[in-house]
Amino acid sequence: xxxxxxxxxxxxxxxxxxxxxxxxxxxxxxxxxxxxxxxxxxxxxxxxxxxxxxxxxxxxxxxxxxxxxxxxxxxxxxxxxxxxxxxxxxxxxxxxxxxxxxxx
Length: 104
Known about the structure:
four-stranded antiparallel sheet; Protealysin inhibitor emfourin; Emfourin
């Protein structure tokens, strides 16, 4: 699975926009298992459906998942709809090297 995480917004919109593409299959086993559980379609869909207001100084996440079958699913999620554990996982994923292929 490939995960692409893009962020926009933040404090005055300065310096917080990041894009990162991570090959989950290349992660250490423990991180891979946590990422697959936390970034499931059910979890992301529920967060995307939660109240989501774009506004000043808020961070917004665009998360695209490409499964091993090649299908891509995209979610737009506001920071307020994410539990702290999810934000920690995103930080963890963004610390790994970027995937080399050009999907999703």
